[in-house]
Amino acid sequence: AQILILILALVFLFIGLRFMVKVIRQLVIGRVEQFFSDYIFRNGVLALLLGIILTAIVQSSSITTSIMIPLAGAGIVNIYQVFPYTVGANIGTTVTTLLAAMATCSPAALVVALSHFTFNVLGMLLILPFKPIRMIPIKLALAASNLTMKSKIYPILFIALIFFIIPIFLLLIMK
After folding, report:
1. Would you state the pLDDT for residue 19?
2. 77 close to 36: Cβ distance less than 8 angstroms
3. Rounded CA gap, 30 and 19, in Å?
4. Residue 75 DSSP one-character state
5. How far apart are CA 119 and CA 95, in angstroms?
6. 106-137 residue pLDDT tens
7. Which residues of 40-79 are buried (b: 16+ CB within 10 A; e: fewer)?
8. What gap in Å lies between CA 44 and CA 82, rounded to an integer?
9. Phi, psi of 45, deg, nearest 5
10. What is the spatial distance between Cα 76 and Cα 31, in angstroms, rounded to a whole number?
């Protein structure tokens, strides 16, 4: 009888712990989601600045954009919030090239770094302020994700097309 009571007590303990973890996880995720919505991604300008600053600090847009993937997967942030952040990360990555160019004291290196910076800033100025234009990459990303959810062959085909087939085709027609 005592062993049965011990087993039942352990079962109830684990069931209680499991429910407690579920409830706490929901509360934390809800609060994290609320924190991101209320403070970090409250508007596009804050998201853009966060992308620039974080990327300038870690000097890698791959790192700062990769941080967002699990957050988007968990539904904490959405593509409309992440897009200006990603554009900011692209601008922030130019800080590394500007620093490297200034360290070399080479006019050619500075021209390349400033071109990189100018290209990213002009891209931001042409895309972010205008909602119809801003929606083009977002809609393309949503369409690509929908295709990927249907079949895993689509991203493989996309990579092959963009990085191999089109460049080879362009090299062949340019000869």
Report:
1. 76
2. yes
3. 16
4. T
5. 13
6. 999 999 999 999 999 999 999 999 999 999 99
7. ebeebebbbebbbebbbebeebeebbeebeebeeeebbee
8. 9
9. -65, -45
10. 10
